[in-house]
Model the fold of this input.
Amino acid sequence: MKVAVKKLSENATVPTYGSEFAAGADLYSAAGGPVEIPAHETRVIPTGIAMELPEGYAGLIYARSGLATKRGLAPANKVGVVDCDYRGEVKVALHNHSNVTQTVDAGERIAQFIITPYITAQFIVCDELSDTARGEGGFGSTGTK
Done:
């Protein structure tokens, strides 16, 4: 799949894949310098790019596992969603879950971007839903193990 990427900043880096079979492409900070994220706070990091995703696809922004586990930095909204009709700058709201200030350097990999197809549902109001064995069992209703 070819995806058009527009560089909005001279600091921008086009997303890259870390290995041949990587599902997520790395997104990079295009901030003009280091960005400090105090403990338990969030900062929006620019990537300096805009994209044209194909119709029927969305871009999902996930944490980079090393950044999350080693430094406590992960997207504030857990998973960011970039719709196919969005043409603005892709930004990552990074939250610092650690107890110390973290610094994100310009050009550093800050998140991963997965392009995935989606289905647009037509929601139909009805009076009854079909029965299942689970029924209305909610959180924890299928067991604790």
